[in-house]
Design goal:
Layout: E1 15-17, E2 30-32, E3 39-42, E4 48-50, E5 54-60, E6 69-73, E7 76-81, E8 85-88, E9 97-103, E10 106-107, E11 111-113, E12 115-118, H1 120-134
Parallel strand pairs: 4-12
Antiparallel strand pairs: 1-2, 3-5, 5-8, 6-7, 6-9, 9-10, 9-11
GO biological process, one term: cell surface receptor signaling pathway
InterPro entries: Ig-like_dom, Ig-like_dom_sf, Ig-like_fold, Ig_Fc_receptor, Ig_sub
Protein name: Ig-like domain-containing protein
């Protein structure tokens, strides 16, 4: 079933977070950076698999917003979105990098997005297809 907790964070709470069971088993850690600025870039905390759709959201802290936002990758402007959301329909390794966004309220901190190799399910399908082709 899982469990969760909701806390109010301040910048000094930045760091590595993970879940741990009573018996000492634990999940992989994720690094969370808490920043006090007005603009936040919502992006995947964990690596994303090549081929999946990813949406980055430029938000104002504390309130939902749909302000026009500029999205940057590795310091270069890549797209302007009037909804504040930028979707990459099928990520590839070339999409890996350091992202940030700006809107009329300011600039978000930079966030690294990691892209991992091809989806194993797609690889399995390709292997099965190759097997039948050989037959």
């Amino acid at each position: 079933q899982g469990s969760s907790c909701i806390v109010s964070l301040i910048p000094s709470h930045s760091g590595a977070y993970w879940c741990e069971s009573g018996s000492g088993e634990h999940s992989n850690a994720v690094n969370i950076t808490v920043h006090a600025g007005a603009v936040i870039l919502e992006s995947p905390a964990l690596p994303v698999t090549e081929g999946v759709s990813v949406t980055l959201r430029c938000r104002n802290q504390g309130t939902p917003s749909d302000l026009t936002a500029d999205f940057y990758k590795d310091g270069s402007l890549i797209r302007t979105e009037t909804t504040g959301d930028m979707t990459i329909p099928a990520v590839s390794k070339s999409d890996e990098g350091l992202y940030k966004c700006t809107n009329s309220e300011g600039e978000s901190p930079e966030s690294w997005m990691t892209v991992t190799g091809e989806n194993l399910r797609n690889l399995d399908v390709q292997m099965i297809w190759s097997f039948f082709t050989l037959l």
